[in-house]
Amino acid sequence: MHVGGVCLKTSLIILSLSPLCLFTFIMNFRFIFQTSDGQALTRTQFIEANILILTLLLVCFIWCVVSIFLYCYFRFFVSFGKTGGYTISEVNEDKEAGINFFLTLILPLLIGDLNEWQNLVVFVLIFIIIFILLLKTNLFYANPVLTLLGYHVYKLTFYDNSDINNECIVLTTSKISTSATIEYKKIADKVLFAKPIKL
Fold this sequence. Notes:
alpha+beta, about 45% helix
């Protein structure tokens, strides 16, 4: 796979996990301001008491900001260099891809208090494992953020395409029907961004 495709796939994985970072940020935006006996913490004591949550919130905030830029990169990347003129023989829309991704990979990771080492370590390890699994598979296409932004997921086959002989997955902002002619750009193996060509 070319370098651009690798970067694009990674970008979409980061984008797909941004809701988790946003919800984690919101759920854990709370701090310790007093000692156990009610004394107000000094600035140094405040940082020491909240270092875990401050670090987590910073990472989550940066992740969400980076995701916005990566979405812009995705939109720019798929705007150019598309391959066109291929007709579809069979197409089925996967309307539940985004919600299934959200329910199976996002919600279970919304762990409570992450200002404790044990909970934070578990959260980080699971997060890393999910990221690696998404990198090694094509499940990133079921991106809940793209679903919210109006993208559709289709599984389709072509009449005659020597580059893609079997069923592939397509992300698109348009409705695609059987016998439509499309232009596409590869995101990953068997995962494309496409749009119909108006004849």
